[in-house]
Amino acid sequence: MITTDRYGSEHTDMDYRTEAHTIMASAAWNPMPRFSFTANASYTMGRGNISDLEFGHLPAFFQQDLKIWMDTTSVNPNMPHLYDTFYLNDMSSYSNLDFKDMEIEIGASYALTPKVGLGLKYFYSDVEDEEEYVYGSQDVTVQSLMGFVTYRF
Amino acid sequence: MKKLYISLIALLALALAAVPSALAEEKALEGQISIGGTVTMDDIDNDEDGAVGLGTEYNSIIEKNRTWDLSGDLSLRNSQLSLDAEGHYQDGDDQEYGAVASFGRILNYKTNYNRFFHRLGHDELSNLMAHIFKNTDGTEANPAKPAGFGIGSLGDAATVGAAAVYHTDHDPEAEYGVTYSVWNNSVKLNIPQLPGLKIGLDYRSQTRKGCDQARTMSKCSACHIEGYTKSIDETTRDFMPKVGFSFGTVALEYSFLHREFEEDSSDMLNTYNNLAAPKHVKLFSDRLQFDGTNGPLPFNRMPESTKDTHTVKARWDLNSHNTLTAAFVYSKSTNESVDHPYNALLGQFGEEIELESTTLTGKWHSKLRKGLSLTLHGKYQTLDNDEPFVDVVDRPNLTTGAILGDKYGVGAGFWDFERKSGYDLDITSVGLDIAWRVMHGLTLRGGYEFHYEDRENAEYHHVPDDTTAHKFKLSADYRLNHNLRFSLGYKLDLIDDAYALHKAMCTPNSSFGAYAGPKTDLYTFERSYRPTIYEARVAERTNQPDTIHELSFKTNWSPFSLFSTNLYAKYRYAENSEVDGREWQEDLFNGGINLVFNMSEKMVFTAGYNYFNDKTESVYCIAIYDG
Predict the structure, then answer these.
(1) Which partner for B285 in A140, A145, B135, B398 could form a disulfide, CB atoms 3.0-4.6 Å apart?
(2) Every domain of chain B and the residues it spans
């Protein structure tokens, strides 16, 4: 049994990239003095990922150290040795980011009299999370409708 | 705070009650009120419980289905009073109010209140599952698992080894969020008999209330991460009286800020795993600061603090072309929560920790001639932090009863130390800015700044003693005609010894070695970890650049009255080639376009697109030791 301490280091590149496209549009329309209409929409697509994370297997130098190079094939064929830097490569996808976010808001107001008006607003929000992180899925869809009466003095 | 809402609503109601009489006074009172409600048609369903997606992170009403929506604003004018107020109530966790009042232009009052809900994430901790395998060939000892060790989802107990990372979420169904509120108030008094004198008082109250996830971890056994629900109740109050006086071309102002941070959140306690047993008890129990044998111990504490700041500002208009401004700021921040009785996790500092900061700034702005101006500016700041005494626990060995210091003949207290603060530093900057209107429509701007940071305790934190930066900037604004305008900008930062961590990692050359010293105690620090781990870390790394190039471009074009557009872009390239191994780099681009169509007086259409791309290149290095 080898008892001599063996040590060293392994390194790899670790590049991280984030990217986002955002498109937005809005419109305001007053077809008649008493009626107004507004609409807003935005769409965001975001991505993030680690690349170039490519650890090699531990060098043969460590094969002499039983505590590092322990053969565990019988309990997990996918990880034949107790420690191997190669196993770390899977973490490159761990913090991946991939989401799509759509927001829509539509509103309309109508003046019943010069002092009294009615309004209606519709909100839509939809987030699609393609890559879960530690907080679980962030998918969410929300719709809401707001109505109001306005009095001017 | 409920009294505040009632008061504000009552104020609004009283104002509205006065509408008829006010109308009779030639529209002294104007405004509007809006009464409505919101129905949320879709909700976060059970499968998405706790989601904090982009569309809902700050949305307080999605789980309440039906909420009121009340808003209003008013404006009141008469010979004695000028008042503008507005308010919006959507939900108990979504409110906004503001008012500006002037009483005969002698007493001016400005206030605003904002309250919103911030949904926080719940870390499921589910990624925290890994373990070594029990030895299968019988050549290595198989240490027993420590008390409290959880196999659970880790796998088959027959194959899971003692070294593992696993988790326990004590409140897995909890949803977290904090309601944030801030109330700003400012009163200013102008005394007609003393026109140059201004007296004021600012008051600000900020609160955070709700629940968040608190996490802690056992060590020197398995890495057992535990998550709890922690109630949050934090209040920050600012009181700032100030007085200003101007006479002729000179103006002076003095203010004193007293800030209190109060923390009434729940006290978190956790009983940690015991040290891996039984083999390691004799070897390591005198090296730990705490473990499960200490019983429940506090964690996730937020210290209460105060801060007092004195500020003096001065302005002197030397003549119509030259102005001098200067400021002096002295502040003292005090950590009020470190003088508790001895406890393994509370320390034994015996007195509060203070951070002092003194800042001097000055600026001279001069219009050298028509179209040409020069600004010289400088700043000096010094930060001085207390050096609290850290009493490292001399824990008796659970088997022998002896402390580690006796074992090595150094006695108790050998590892005690004074914490040298990384905040002890001096910051100096001087610079100049020039603006030159070369000709009609063309303006050039340039600037230079010298920035120097001197760190007093750099050697204790393995960071550079000092950092020097030279910052250059150049820009041009060109207006070809009323319809077309360009802006171009370039910035260059050159930094010597950017903030970095010396000995951050092993030399990234894949070199390997074997310990060849005398065979002593296997767990003696001098034999194992010092030479093979800590002293092998010789490479310097940072995420701070030593060179930054930044280009920016913007244009506005309005070819005809019904259409306008602007195009913008910024590119930043930053690198640090002074670090060991591969250099650190960042490429950042942000750009977009906006379009505005005024189709008619009754119709406006806008559209926009933005693209963001940020890439950092670094190196990842891990130490390997026979464990």
Answers:
(1) B398
(2) 1-51+65-107, 121-231+265-302, 420-627
